[in-house]
DNA sequence: GAGAGATATCTCGATGTCAAGACAGTACAC
DNA sequence: GTGTACTGTCTTGACATCGAGATATCTCTC
């Protein structure tokens, strides 16, 4: 009920209510904020990684490998499912990461169509450093929210995300 | 405390807890979900707009103009602030929208550096149709959440977004 | 064990974005 | 009024992404 605009989305919703009073624009309260927040997060991440000489896309691939645990090795197919990009993109990413010496490619001994990608020593060190730095910054971004609110927010987002993740 | 993975992010967090038990990865519960959800939303929007022969980037610009109200006219500078893109991108977008007959450019009579961009009749009709379609789909995406939860979620997101929106 | 269809990866062309800088015009202080 | 800093828009070149299709291999059925 409060009509004071507290963020851009409040202003945006107020404008729509004036222009299209016939429509129910409530969904924007959630979904526009998700999109905008993601865009800001991308920029924050870019800044965080710059100190470690990593691009966000490089980080995405390296963390997927890191999370897999020793020997830090996954197929391109597993990587593209983890990072939500297309196969052409993943091929390109792996090429450049390999050229930078952060990952290694080898043929899959069990499937001659397949390839396995693994972290190099350098890649492992780089991703570990960047990741703890990122967590520090993300922790700060969330500092306006208490632990209870954070858990509540995570739960609500999980509900929205579930239909996307399961049927894939 | 429940350790059953309910979405990809739960699995991701569990993997990190195993691999880096020294780090507090709680922030990912919120922020990874925001990023992933935004990515899925982009795809859903793309699908929705395809029926109206619009790309998401076209829609972003057209809605900003539509929201401004009659005469549906804004400067490129205002548009890029509304859409979080750079000036080079906005120039390119306006070029292509003008070529498609959806917007019109004219010199700003009050500032000879400036330009004003406005919706054409076609642009207005197109954006209105696409917008109500989008809202219908976004409404469905949120159907897993009751009205109370939606409001709670919007409020929590607003808290996170506020520091980004105000200091700009 | 042969064939059909599925799967894994890569190639290629088109495209949208960004960053940095160019340029014209404005505003403000002196 | 003149000079300096700022603002608004556009240009350019590099680059990451996507989508469609190519190729090789595997799997399953008969």
Q: Could you walk me through the main structural features you see in this protein, from its secondary elements to its overall organization?
A:
The structure is a homodimer of 168-residue chains. Chain A is mainly alpha-helical and 168 residues long. Chain A has two domains: 1-49, no CATH class; 51-165, Orthogonal Bundle (Arc Repressor Mutant, subunit A). Chain A is 65% helix and 7% strand. The first copy, chain A, is built from seven helices and three strands, in the order αααβααββαα. Chain A has helices at 8-19, 26-50, 56-67, 76-83, 87-99, 121-141, 147-165, and strands at residues 73-74, 103-107, 115-119. A three-stranded antiparallel β-sheet of chain A has the order 1-3-2. In chain A, strand 2 and strand 3 (115-119) form a beta hairpin. In chain A, helix 3 (56-67) crosses helix 6. The longest helix of chain A has 25 residues, at 26-50. The two termini of chain A are 39 Å apart. The mean pLDDT of chain A is 89. Chains A and B meet through helix 1, helix 2, helix 6 and helix 7 of A and helix 1, helix 2, helix 6 and helix 7 of B. The structure holds a DNA duplex (30 and 30 nucleotides).
């Amino acid at each position: 009920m409060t009509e004071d605009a507290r963020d851009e989305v409040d202003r945006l919703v107020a404008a729509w209510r004036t222009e299209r009073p016939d429509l129910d624009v409530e969904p924007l309260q959630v979904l526009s904020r998700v999109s905008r927040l993601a865009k800001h997060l991308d920029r924050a991440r870019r800044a965080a990684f710059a100190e470690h000489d990593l691009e966000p896309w490089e980080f995405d691939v390296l963390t997927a490998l890191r999370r897999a645990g020793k020997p830090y090795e996954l197929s391109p197919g597993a990587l593209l499912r983890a990072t939500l990009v297309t196969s052409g993109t993943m091929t390109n990413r792996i090429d450049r990461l390999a050229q930078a010496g952060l990952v290694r490619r080898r043929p899959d001994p069990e499937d001659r169509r397949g390839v396995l990608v693994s972290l190099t020593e350098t890649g492992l060190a780089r991703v570990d450093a960047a990741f703890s730095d990122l967590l520090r910054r993300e922790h700060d971004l969330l500092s306006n929210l208490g632990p209870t609110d954070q858990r509540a927010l995570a739960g609500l987002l999980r509900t929205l995300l579930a239909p996307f993740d399961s049927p894939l």
